[in-house]
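Suppose you are handed only these lines of text.
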Amino acid sequence: MRLQRYEKNPILLPLPQPLHEWEALNVFNAAVVHHNGLFHMLYRAQGLDYVSRLGYAVSADGYQWSRLDKPVFEPAEPWESYGVEDPRITRIEDTFYMCYTAYSEMGVRACIARSQNLITWERLGVVLPGEDNKDHVLFPEKINGRYAMFHRRYPDIWLAYSDDLVHWTDHTIVMRPRYKAWDELKIGAGGPPIRTPHGWLILYHGVDEQHVYRLGAALLDLEDPAFVISRPDEPILEPEERWERKGDVPNVVFTCANVVLDDTLYVFYGGADRVMAVATCSFSALLDFLLKHRER
Ligand code: BMA
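From them, the structure of the protein bound to beta-D-mannopyranose can be written out as follows.
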């Protein structure tokens, strides 16, 4: 089972103009939500200073995008001084929550901000203080009365719970790298988990010893997402196109966003840390594939 690339990829390129200095080098690893009939994107942008800021773009179909001239989210705290990276947005009831990585001389920190309109953001702060952490993403609903979130304690995907989105407890490992596989070195969650009648469908990235980033899918128990129902051996996307192989970091496909509309799964992903792209598949076909590869 493989994702199908949009034939006119990439969908977003750096804009090397004086006006767009902040996004002149790389635009990648975006969050995307579908709301009120439109796709909304917050993308990670780097200018020549390599500081990551977040730009906003909007689209009616997920393929053709229009963007704002200025970033909508920029470093503002000491722990963000080198940049705000890799946003993942989850809607919970009427609020959009953005998980993002803050990068500074202190290291990388897992942060959350919230918004009602996707443009103006209020910071909740560092949610896993005192540790290097990233690849965190919220579940779209509470599980057994508490908020749930994936995060990454190198090299594994972890699950944690919270009553207030700020204090996180009951940390457990969900998935680990697999020996001599495409996801042998480290793994991290993609966009928000998707509820299905058979479990939480998740996408994740895996890295091999050659530092190639690929994408995979898994199915987790609805009541206890630490229980893995299915994790097929094969990736669903790997670097093949020139702009996935060559860029700021070679051989990278990296996702922070998945949207399901009707029966189409849209996977938005960064190519080689330089451009944004989209690939799709039939959601029910992917779910069937996962159910066929159930672990015993
Ligand atoms: C990870 C993250 C991603 C990036 C990837 C490949 O550690 O920082 O933002 O796409 O590395 O460089």
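What can we learn from it? The helical segments are 242-245, 283-292. The first helix runs from residue 242 to 245.
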